[in-house]
Specification:
- By secondary structure, the chain is mainly β.
- The protein has a 22-stranded mixed β-sheet that branches. A 7-stranded parallel β-sheet has the order 17-20-23-26-28-30-32, with no helix packed on it.
Length: 424
Amino acid sequence: MTPGWSDADRIRADVRPPEFPAVDFPITSYGATPGNATAGIAAAVAACSESGGGRVVVPPGVWYTKAIRLRSQVELHISEGATLRFSTDPADYLPVVETRYEGLEVLNHSPMIYANGCTDIAITGTGTLDGQASSDNWWSWFHECDEEFKRLREQSWFGIPLQDRAVGHRLRSSFVQPFNCTNVLIEGVTVVRSPFWQLHPVLCRNVTIRDVVIDSQGPNNDGIDLESCRSVVISGCTIDAGDDCIALKSGREADGLRVNVPTEDILIEDCTLRVKYGAITLGSDLTGGIRNVYVRDCRIDGPYFALYIKTNAVRGGFVENVYLRDLTVAKVLKEVVQCNFHRGEGEAGPLIPSVRNVELRGVKVEQARNALLFRGYRHARIEDVRLVDCDFTVDQPSTVQHTVLGFDNVTVNGRPIKDVHQIR
């Protein structure tokens, strides 16, 4: 049976944030000082986990730290007026850890906050996580990693084991990454000056991200990336990102085929999504597939696209059952929705993408360059795209090729649209 909006209510009911014992472990009790909080935080996390769980508390003030590794049953609480300010020295994020870089498995520098294989973890509070990234440190790596990333892609295609994937030292790590974790909560914090992707759960189940403020516009600074995750609720977040605001992914190319874990059962609601590329993006690392995505009651202002589905014959994968409802779009710089199988490498690959059952309902767009850009393949159409009760104000005609598209009460520039040829 094809899911509908009732399935969003199921996701909302099923996803529950973890709960922790009401016991505090102040980092100052474990030797943390403002100038060097690393060892004190690690000791507090260890004591908290080993005693059965609780809350590791960062008090008001600015606290300088290296990489933080969470453990099960630990809530890291950033108090009001507190800032965790992270080192910009790459040596402070060694030894390397199991992670993903743009959908490929790799041993890389640790994310600034990392957990692997944990149950019941959280980052909460109204304080700030500051990665201190700038063009003088992490962001400069954006221009220095092409050869390393090319080598990593080759290692993936040839099936080189993870432990042998040594690619160098210019692949940036994510800011916050729970990896293969269950019952995850990220709530209330403000994230600034991220080195790379900002909140990046990978292979996680039962994830809640709510009331987070993200303001980091460095190169490729996605706001929230969910990669091969299941059962996730994102709500009440405000995101200004240097790339996609919320991106759903599921691995890339050979690694995506081998691991083969989709991202599924995702609810996004009551968020404000601003610059830069896609407000809601599916891909481009989606070889493992994406299904059952619900977006409602969000405000979008300033990115290139409101919904951006990115794949081609090199990435492949499937996207199915995507529902957007009651969105207010003040401005997008390009299309409201783009899904173009000819982007990037286009048809020059062995994997045939599949996109089906995508619905926009109650979407009002005040300003956009175009309403739609849909370009499937002649041998692989984009199937069952529906626009219902939508109103677009646009500057240019849309592009629709090899796509099955339906309209119900749709207006463009005040004119009712009843046929796909009218919107071109």
